[in-house]
Write a structure and sequence with these properties.
This protein has 649 residues and is of the alpha+beta class. It folds into five domains: 2-112, Rossmann fold (3-Layer(aba) Sandwich), CATH 3.40.50; 141-210, ATP-grasp fold, A domain (Dna Ligase, domain 1, 2-Layer Sandwich); 217-452, 2-Layer Sandwich (D-amino Acid Aminotransferase, Chain A, domain 1), CATH 3.30.470; 461-573, no CATH class; 579-647, RNA polymerase II/Efflux pump adaptor protein, barrel-sandwich hybrid domain (OB fold (Dihydrolipoamide Acetyltransferase, E2P)), CATH 2.40.50.100. Helices cover 28% and strands 31% of the residues. It is built from 18 helices and 36 strands. The radius of gyration is 26 Å and the shape is globular. The termini are far apart.
Amino acid sequence: MTAFLTAPFPIRTVLIANRGEIACRVIATCRRLGLRTVAVYSDADANALHVRLADQACRLGPPAASESYLNIPVIIAAARASGADAVHPGYGFLSENAGFVRACAEAGLIFIGPSAEAVQAMGSKIEARRIAEAAGVPVVPGFDGVGASTEELIAAAERIGYPVMVKASAGGGGRGMRRVETAEALPPALASARAEAGSAFGDDTVFLEKLIQSPRHLEVQVFGDGKGGALHFHERDCSVQRNHQKVIEEAPAPNLPEAVREKLFSSALKLARAINYAGAGTVEFIMEGGGSEPYFLEMNTRLQVEHPVTECICGVDLVEFQLRQAAGLALPLTQEQIVPRGHAIEVRINAERPDEGFLPATGRFLDVVPPRGLRFDTGVAAESEVGTYYDSMLAKLISHGADRETARQRLIAGLEQLAMPGLSVNQAFLADCLRAPAFAAGNATTAFLGETFPDGWRPDSKKLLALRAQAATALLDQPSENPLLRTDGFRATGPRRPGAAPLAVDDDYGQADLTLLFGAERSALSGGEIVTLGSRDAAVWHSDGVIHATADGLSVSLSARSLAEARVNARAEGQAAGQIVAPLTGLITGVHVAPGDVVKSGDQLLVMEAMKLVHTLVAPFDGKIIKVACATGETKSAKTVLIEMEENP
């Protein structure tokens, strides 16, 4: 800490203007360096992990980000009240807000990041393209006329040639982006992209780029001194994406010709030097799969989610380097000393349902048990609550090995060992991604998920059956919760006549009939499939009559009743056809029908929002609206009936 106290710009206390995993990550480095930390939190995060880890915590306001994590005056007031010298923005929220950088400077606070001018220049994708072109950095062919009318954009698209990509000039994360295949599809795409960009970033400016089919997404970690000097910490490959959101990241990029690598480094450093960049930043590129010409995409003027893979191969702590640069201290490395060693791969652990189109999941973790031997950057722990207000990313699991295959196998094993019961997460899906031949060969492009799971992802049926059977067995072992004690559906006899327990189970993946067979060896039968239960038991947690079980990276939260009872109840309850239920817990942001309305299959009924994602519910058939049980502004729980309709006779 002495170096920071005697630095040109002394730092003793750092306020982290963020939450979750990145806040915990910054706290860890500050603690190692002997720096005091201040967490900020909304009412939804009062008991969050980052709040517990910091030396001090300051409340910002209500859960809505606009009233808490995006509220600049409140954050500045918290920094002043806590005695902070510096502010670390993390990523997301205000990390790329030039106004926030200026507000910190006006309050006498050190902003741990680049200058407001650099943030502003790169914050506009249109301006960033122009700076890149002026610096001699190749950009994707496109049209970036500021204030261009719809007619001008249509004419530009004809010149560029379809397909094109509509992009928001401000912000990122896939918001305000639309792929357009035909001239007829462009006007509605422009309208929806502008609306989404205006809502998300307060700026509805859009531009066009030629769509590069199935590209690789490559990026270079740079670090500038703010005086025209810059270093690079080699490249990453972030091609595995869904909805323009990264899923898996790795360093170095596999199967990349050395000539391409040198082009990436040269272009990234040219851009960083052109704007006198200070601190950590990432210059992103896209390149045709199998191609040799990378095009500049954008620059992120902050620490990236995927920075751990760079830290692993380069043996550095980028947060420490950020703190040193902000304090006016020199970096302890030259370019020649930054030598990559081995290979690192990171996966993002999200609260979501990959089997249901990646719907966000909410709830409470009963436990969080990371695997041994891997880096686990997390913002959650046992008893952590995950609500609907913020991004679904909760943690990151990172492996490092002497070579790519070693890192890949270690990460698969780590995902199989990771246990996060109580809430749906995507670890089984991630493990299947890592096992896929295209990824194993290092040939993934941004089309990877669609090509690997053309019909969507589902868990392996035998693994799911085995896990359900082990969870159901654990439930039967609890007399107070055993569903068979309420009926006569269970018989237990000797080895010659195995015991059988016919059950109806309900878990994350739906409902199923399941028969447990107890004899010389345990087995389970469901849907014509049978599995033998081996000696390896699932890890289980009991909570309010539900068994939470995890094994081999797959997890379920299972309840059960006897099959006989379930069938009787099903006859009594009848069918629920025509009931439109909430697929997740979220905010109703738009209701587009009223009782008596006649709709066609596919018509938009209502819109829900959760974890910064928008979900549109549509009519399942032609019919008439009978009842609307929700209103704009209401928060509805998953499985709540929102609309009732009847089918046309």
